[in-house]
Amino acid sequence: MRVKSVESIVSPPSPHFVGDGFRVHNFIPSARGLSRERMDPFVMLDYNSKFYFEASATPKGVGVHPHRGFETVTIAYQGKVEHHDSSGGGGIIGEGDVQWMTAARGVLHKEFHEKEWSKNGGIFQMVQLWVNLPAKDKRASPKYQSIENKKMGKWQLPDNSVFVDIIAGELHGIKGAADTFTPMHMYNVKMIKGGICDLSFPKHYNTALLVIEGSISVNSTHEALTDHFVLMANDGENFHIEATEETKILVMSGEPIREPIVSYGPFVMNTEEELQQAYEDFRNGKFGHLAD
Ligand code: MN
Fold it and tell me: Residue 173 C-alpha to ligand 1 middle, in angstroms?
């Protein structure tokens, strides 16, 4: 087994607002080297690094909008998010929880800070990833998986230096909580200073790390600070992460789908015709109904 080396360390791009509730750095596909094709099946990654939201009686967020052709995965680190969609899915997630929404053939949804949390305000930190679906599953039924932290697979080193929450895929035979359409692994890894985590993924899986807290050294060759993204090369399988201070990182690794990606706004399809069809279907109310 060969070493999977570091391809690049990517600094957080300038933030922008999504609605009025999410102040995000768009890594995929805006940042250098992180095209949708390069990170396939992860076709979008918005990272709301720690940001203080003032108390607000009206929850901030994004109103009713459509999605088709993929899944939205929201990972909460601080603060609470509330979600509702036109297929009847909905829920509230807080620190350490994940919501995994399969838009597939199409949903309308809205995403806001949870009402009670919003009344007090506070530090908000989360990730939203868009996981693409293969052509054969883009017309599947919408689905909502609310993945509370306690439902995730748990793995730790006996000396308590490394704790892993397995959101999807598996680690050392321990399975993650999410059902996925294509093979992938997604973890939150917490490490104390000096902790070392060895990981191994197939060479061709697109693999990356996002440093949520603290800082790390990868393969003893590259250092990455808080809010930085580590793109791993497709040149081997094994790599190791050392915590240079107490740290938390998001790990993602997925088998590329390798189909054409034609994306605009809230839709991710395979062809221009399918994209036009999505807009037409949205205009004609074919995504169902969801109240404001
Ligand atoms: Mn959305």
Answer: 32
pTM of the model: 0.97
Measured in Å, residue 150 CA sits from the centre of ligand 1 at 25
Say if 229 falls within a structural domain.
yes
**Which CATH number do you get for residue 62?**
2.60.120.10
Tens-digit pLDDT profile for residues 231-285: 999 999 999 999 999 999 999 999 999 999 999 999 999 999 999 999 999 999 9
The number of C-alpha atoms within 13 Å of 112 and in the hemisphere containing its C-beta is 18
What is the whole-number distance in angstroms between the Cα of residue 111 and the centre of ligand 1? Answer: 7
CA of residue 66 to ligand 1 center, whole Å: 7
For ligand 1, the distance from its centroid to the CA atom of residue 223, given in whole angstroms, is 33
Whether 176 is in a domain gets the answer yes
Cα distance between residue 21 and residue 40, in whole Å: 27
Calculate how far, in angstroms, residue 290's C-alpha sits from the geometric centre of ligand 1. Answer: 13
Domain count, the chain: 1
Separation CA 216–CA 111 (nearest Å): 32
Gap from CA of 132 to ligand 1 centroid (Å): 14
Residue with tokens 């995994």: 100
230: containing domain: 6-254
